[in-house]
Amino acid sequence: MSSYFTDLAQQYIDGEWRPGTGSWDIIDFNPYDDEKLASITIATVDEVDQAYKAAARVQREWAGTNPYVRRAVFEKALRLVEEREQEITELIVAELGGTRLKAAFELHLVKEFLRESVHLTLSPQGTILPSPGDGKENRVYRVPVGVVGVISPFNFPFLLSVKSVAPALALGNGVVLKPHQNTPIAGGTLVAKIFEDAGLPAGLLNVVVTDIAEIGDAFIEHPVPKVISFTGSDKVGRHVATVCASHFKRAVLELGGNSALVVLDDADLDYAVDAAVFSRFVHQGQVCMAANRVLVDRSVAEEFTEKFVTKVKSLKSGDPRDPQTVIGPVINSTQAAAVAAVVEQALAEGATALVRGARRDNLVEPSVLTGVPADSPLLRQEVFGPVAFLVPFDGEEEAVRIVNDTPYGLSGAVHTADIERGVAFARRIDTGMFHVNDGTVHDEPRVPFGGEKHSGIGRLNGETTVDAFTTLKWISVQHGRSGFPF
Fold first, then answer.
1. CA distances (Å), origin 101, targets 84, 327, 361
2. Does residue 334 contact residue 154 with C-beta atoms inside 8 Å?
3. For residues 190 and 169, what is the distance between their CA atoms, to the nearest angstrom?
4. Fewer beta carbons within 10 Å, N or C terminal of the chain?
5. Burial category of 467 from C-beta neighbours within 10 Å (exposed 0-12, middle 13-18, buried 19 and up)
6. Is 303 a catalytic residue?
7. 375: Cβ–Cβ under 8 A, 6 or more apart, which residues?
8. Active-site residue flag, 288
C-alpha cells in the first residue's frame, strides 16, 4: 500500500498535518477489493473556520508577493508531480478504481493545468480607460477575490481539485479545499502535500476532509470565501448555488451532463465507433462529459451497431491494476446498484440489451441498450456508469431535436465527412462545448470549459479562470480639480 494512505490521512490546516476532532471517521476503501486504505477523523465546523481564517490571513501577503516569485512555486509543483508520477498512479488505481490508462490520462491533464498556472501568475493586467471628465484618469485593477472554497468530486479528483486550486493560488488567492469523501487523498491531501513541498506559504492552502452530516452548509456559508468552485451533481449544485446567492457569493458550478455523440450518414464509421466507445466507457462512464447517448442515422445504424457492439464486447473488465483492464470498478456499491437499476429499468420499459454486462460487487461490466422508448426519462438524465443507449434517427432535424431534449448541456460530438456540416450542426446544440469528428470527453487549459442549462454556471480554464477567481476594482485619479454643483 502506498505511504500516501498513512502519511496523508489527516487534515491540513494552517500548515499543520493533524487529525480532525469530529465524532466519527471517514473510511477510505479500495472500490475494487474493499481493502481499507485509510481512516480519517473528520473536520468539524470549528476546523473549517480555522482553515478559512488561516487562508485569509496568509493571502494578504501572498497577493502582494512578486508574481515571478509566486511562479516558482508552480514550476516546482509541476516537477514534483512528474517525479512522483508512479506513486500517484498507484494512488489513483487504488483509491478510485481507475485503470492505468485512466490514471495516465488524469496525470497528463494535471501537468497541463499546472503548466497553465505557471503562466497565470503573470496574467492579471490592469487597464486605463478614458473619462468624459477633464483631468481624470480611470484605472481598472484586476485583483484576487481573496479566498476561494473548492469542492471536488470523486471521478477525476486530482485533476478537478488542481484545476481550481492551482489557478486560484496562482492568481493571488488563498484556498480551502474539501475533497469528496470517497477520494480524500487523491482529491485533497495529495494536492496539499504537492504544494507544501513546492514551497507554498503555510496556511495559504488548507484541506478539510469532512461531510455535510457534520458541518452542514458551513463550508459554503462561511463569511471568508468570496467564490465557491463546485464540481459535482446538478442536484447538489443547485443547493450550492442557492446558498451562495443568499450570502452574496459567486458560484462557479461544473455539473453533470447527458452528452450525445451523433453519427451522421456520411461519417467514417470505424472512427466514429472508436470515438463513441471511448466517450462512453472511459473510467467506467463516470465522466460528466461521457456520451450517454449514441445517436446514429438510420441509414448507417445497422453497420455502426454491429461494429460498436463488437468493440464493446472486446473491452476487458476487472482488476484496475492490470494494464490490460479497460473497465474497472465504479466508485462504491451505491453507484453500482444505481447503474444496475438503470439497465433493469430500460429493459422493463421495452429496451433490448445488445450487450448486458454482469455486476460483481462494484465491478459493473458494459451494457449496450437499444429501443429505449423516446419518452423514457433515462434518455434525459445523467447515467454515471458503463451503459450506452443507441438511438437511431432520421435526418439532421430529428437528431438536433433529440440531442437537445435533455435538461443538460455540457458536451457532445458529431461525426461527418463534411467539417462545415458538422460545425453547423454543433451550433444548433444547446451545450457549452461540442466537438466535430472527435470524442465528447475533452479538457484543455486555455479553452472555456463549462455547460449550459443544468450543466453549470460559469466557465473555467484560460481567461475564464481569471474572470472566475479575480475581481475588478476601479480607482480614478483626478489630476486637476473637479467642479461640484454645491
1. 17, 10, 22
2. no
3. 16
4. C
5. middle
6. no
7. none
8. yes
Q: What angle do CA 300, 301, 307 make, to 5 degrees?
A: 95
Give average pLDDT by consecutive 10-residue segment, the chain, 486 residues. Answer: 88 98 96 97 98 98 96 98 97 97 97 97 92 95 98 98 98 98 98 98 98 97 98 97 98 97 98 98 98 98 98 98 97 97 98 97 98 97 97 98 98 98 98 98 96 97 96 96 92
Amino acid at 387: V
For residue 284 the three cell numbers come to 467506467
Rounded Cα gap, residues 123 and 208, in angstroms: 29
**Rg, C-alpha atoms of the chain:** 24
**Residue 194 identity:** I
In this structure, the strands spanning 11-13 and 147-151 are unpaired
Which one is catalytic: 116, 254, 382, 396?
Answer: 254
Q: How far apart are CA 203 and CA 50, in angstroms?
A: 10
Phi, psi of 147 (to 5 degrees): -130, 135
